[in-house]
Structures are given as structure tokens and as C-alpha cells.
Amino acid sequence: MPAADLPPPPARMLVNADEFVFNGSRKAGPSGKWQIQLRNNGEDPHDLAVRRSDGRVVAQSAEIDPDGLGTVKVRLKPGTYQLFCGIAGHEALGMSWRLIVRVPKVRTTAP
User: Fold this and answer.
1) pLDDT at 7
2) Which of 5, 22, 76, 80 lies in the 20 to 30 Å Cα band around 54?
3) Burial state string for 73-101 with b = 16 or more CB within 10 A and e = fewer than 16
4) Contacts of 72 (CB under 8 A, 6+ apart)
5) Which pTM does this prediction carry?
């Protein structure tokens, strides 16, 4: 299969979690497949959930123990998403990150 025919790789992102902060490696990216990892640097279990602007949660990891790493794989359409810890009370304490997903730029080459 020619390289031009291969599907694009997933967009990747790392979110570092601590009590009670989320810090993401990016604020925006292309629509399509995403692989988002959560690194739990805290002392409590945390998880990673992805919520659309209409309030629907479209993906959520299992609880990740301290010093653990978890991954969420999800397909995201253009829009604004909230990444947050779904454990009771954690989002309200500051564990959230806004992600903007845009239509990917189309690359063209001159003949």
C-alpha cells in the first residue's frame, strides 16, 4: 500500500495528574483517532474521562493507581472536549483540561 493511502496515525496526548490538577501536553489537535495517556503522579487513584460540549462522556479509563499510566483510545469529531477525572469531586477541585479538536488541514502537493 503506498504511503499516501495509509490512514494517519492517531493524535497523541499525555495528561499528567496530581492532587488536584490536570496538565495536558497539548490544547488542540486534529479530528480523528486519539490516544490519550494519563500519568498519575499523585497519591490518590485518578481516571481520565472525555466529555463532549453537550455533556456526553465519550470515553473513560479505569482508575489508575499512583505512579500508574492509563490510556484512552477514542475517535473525536471537531469540537471542544473536557478531559477530567471522573472520581467524585475531583473535577470540581480542578482536575480538568480543555481540548479543542479541529478539522485536519489537507496537504496538497504541486504536480
Assistant:
1) 79
2) 22
3) eeebeeeebbbbbbeeebbeeebbbebeb
4) 34, 35, 36, 37, 38, 48, 50, 59, 60, 61
5) 0.88
Task: Give the position of cell 474521562.
Answer: 49
Whether 28 has a pLDDT exceeding 90, the answer reads yes
DSSP sequence for 9-71: PPEEEEEEEETTEEEES-SEEESEEEEEEEEE-SSS-B--EEEETTS-EEEEPPPB-TT-EEE
Q: Give the 3-state secondary structure of residue 92.
A: coil
